[in-house]
Every structure is written in C-alpha cells, then in structure tokens.
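stage 2 :: seqdesign
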C-alpha cells in the first residue's frame, strides 16, 4: 500500500515527507519520486512494550512517495497523473501558513482555492480519459458493465465531482479499478499552518475548505511544519507538555500517519512476547488464516486455530497468564475476521 504526497511549491510537501519517513528530500534529478516507509505511531504498542519488555519492537508502517511540486494552479501533467495512478491513495498538502519573511499581517494565503484547483485538475484528467474511452463506441472488448460505469462516471465528472463520491456497487468496482481513474482514489488533505494559526485554528477560507473536503469525503489533518520539526527533536515528556500548549495530545505527524493508515482501510493485530512486540498490517476484516500469512506462509498453510484476546480486555487483565487462567483467550477458526487491536497467537502444524 502506497500513498502519494502531492502539493504545490512552498506547501511543505517535502518537509512532510521527511518528517514522516526520516528520509531527506530527494537529491535525484528533476521529476524523481523518492519513496520510504513511515512508522505509524501507536500508543497500544508502547503500553505492550512496558509490559513485555521485548528485545525488539516493530510498529506498523506505510509507504509514502514524494511527488514533484505541482504548478501554480495545481496543474497535474499527464506524466504526473500516470505516476500518481500507481498509488493506492493521495495526500494533498495545502499551504495556509504565511511567508515568515513578510511582516504580518501579510496578504492571506487561500488554501481553499488550492484545494479546489487540485480537485478540478483530478476531475478534468478523468473526464478527458472517460470521453476518450466513450468515443470508441465500437470497442468490442468493453463489457456492458464497463460501458454503464463509464457513462455514470462521465455524468459525475461533468458535475465536477470526484469519482470517489459515486454510489458504486460491488459489480462496478472492478471496472473503476481497471481504468485507474485518479479521482476514484481516497484522498487525505493535510493543511500546513503557521504557529499562530495552530493556536487559533483560524485561517483564510477554513470553513469553506472543511466543508468542501467533507462533501468530497476527504479527511483533513491540520499541522504546523515548523512545530513538527521542533517536536521531532524533543524527548517524549517534553513533547507531551509542548503539545498541550496547543491543545493537542498527539503531534501532527502522528495524526497524519494514523489518518493515512485509516484512509486505506487498514488495521493492526499484535503478536507479543519477550523477543518481540509487533504490529502487523492487514486490511480490515481479513480472515484469521490469511492474517497468519502476513507472519509466514507456513503458518497460513498449516493454520489450526487462532488464540485471540482484544487489546482492551488484555490490558484490563494485565498478562497472558491471567487471561489464560481465567479462560479469556478465545479460540477462533480460519474465517474469523481479525479486529483492530487483536492480540493473536496462531496455532499451526506443517
């Protein structure tokens, strides 16, 4: 699973990529797209580590790609659109912060206009693709379902609505995926504020931006790039105190990583012990047997049962021994839909 980070120049796009992944902005040639995994912070892992004191700790991770800056009007070139279609989701970084080199009050930046321009570019790109496909009326390879989906897509796009807002049936989804439309992808909107805006949660056209994102079904995370740089160099206790001054319990980077994880309908189950406490990434409602395959194909092949307890129930009991003694460890079969936060020990035989 990969999320493409996109945004205009000066939005803080590459800074966000660096803060998420720890990878410096690309030193490659023009148009290069650096990729790296970002750790998904999880307080549940921290709590489990305190209990088990493992030799190794592994958090869930998600892949990010840092795309070249968009043009002034958020224009998406054909080449960029094609490369973005290799991503499972997009993170649109929008600038709300003012230029620190210009004395305040400076002319306000309009993040709503940037968002609307990007949305229009995605929709226009897809509309051109749909119209080109529908112009081939005698395409014998196209099924009746595909024809119907393309016609419905054209109608939606002509209303300047992204395809992700459509009421698509399960039969429609394969066709949408086959054509790899840009606006059918889930989008996370990351708004980069300055320190004053972070305190007041007030910036130009904020209400319009939030309303438009809600209508499109795009979650919004507000963060401050300059503050995140400071936070990244602090100890954990310092971070907590610093964030409280801004009315926050988590850093913007933590909130962004968690929102991106959720955007792709992912969740985590845990394996625990003295050797390692680890979060494993799966799609929501993955059957237990397939989830076992994330650890090793032999465990999936030789699956017998999954020994399961939910995170909250485990924390209330305090140890696996107490859970086992009280009969709180459930035995689940191969079709059990693994839930977020499940602590699992797989029984298998190969």
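stage 2 :: out
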């Amino acid at each position: 699973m990969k999320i493409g980070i996109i945004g205009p120049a000066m939005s803080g796009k590459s800074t966000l990529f660096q803060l998420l992944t720890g990878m410096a902005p690309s030193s490659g040639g023009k148009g290069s797209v650096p990729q790296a995994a970002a750790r998904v912070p999880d307080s549940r892992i921290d709590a489990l580590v305190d209990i088990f004191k493992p030799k190794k700790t592994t958090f869930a991770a998600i892949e990010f790609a840092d795309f070249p800056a968009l043009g002034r009007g958020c224009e998406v070139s054909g080449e960029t659109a094609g490369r973005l279609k290799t991503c499972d989701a997009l993170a649109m970084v929008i600038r709300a912060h003012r230029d620190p080199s210009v004395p305040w009050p400076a002319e306000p930046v309009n993040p709503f206009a940037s968002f609307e321009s990007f949305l229009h570019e995605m929709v226009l790109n897809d509309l051109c693709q749909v119209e080109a496909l529908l112009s081939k009326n005698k395409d014998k390879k196209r099924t009746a379902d595909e024809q119907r989906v393309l016609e419905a897509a054209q109608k939606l796009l002509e209303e300047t609505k992204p395809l992700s807002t459509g009421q698509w049936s399960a039969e429609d989804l394969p066709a949408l995926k086959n054509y790899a439309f840009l606006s059918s992808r889930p989008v996370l909107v990351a708004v980069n504020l300055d320190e004053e805006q972070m305190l007041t949660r007030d910036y130009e056209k904020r209400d319009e931006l939030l309303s438009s994102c809600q209508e499109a079904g795009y979650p919004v995370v507000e963060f401050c790039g300059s503050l995140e740089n400071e936070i990244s160099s602090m100890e954990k206790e310092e971070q907590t105190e610093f964030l409280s001054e801004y009315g926050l319990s988590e850093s913007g980077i933590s909130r962004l990583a968690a929102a991106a994880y959720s955007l792709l309908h992912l969740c985590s189950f845990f394996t625990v012990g003295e050797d390692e406490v680890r979060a494993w990434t799966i799609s929501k409602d993955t059957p237990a047997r397939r989830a076992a395959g994330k650890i090793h194909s032999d465990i999936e092949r030789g699956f017998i049962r999954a020994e399961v307890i939910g995170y909250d129930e485990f924390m209330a009991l305090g140890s696996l021994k107490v859970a086992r003694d009280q009969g709180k460890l459930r035995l689940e079969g191969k079709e059990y839909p693994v839930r977020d936060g499940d602590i699992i020990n797989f029984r298998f035989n190969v």
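stage 3 :: structure notes
- Residues 111-134 form the longest helix (24 residues).
- DSSP finds 15 helices and twelve strands in the chain.
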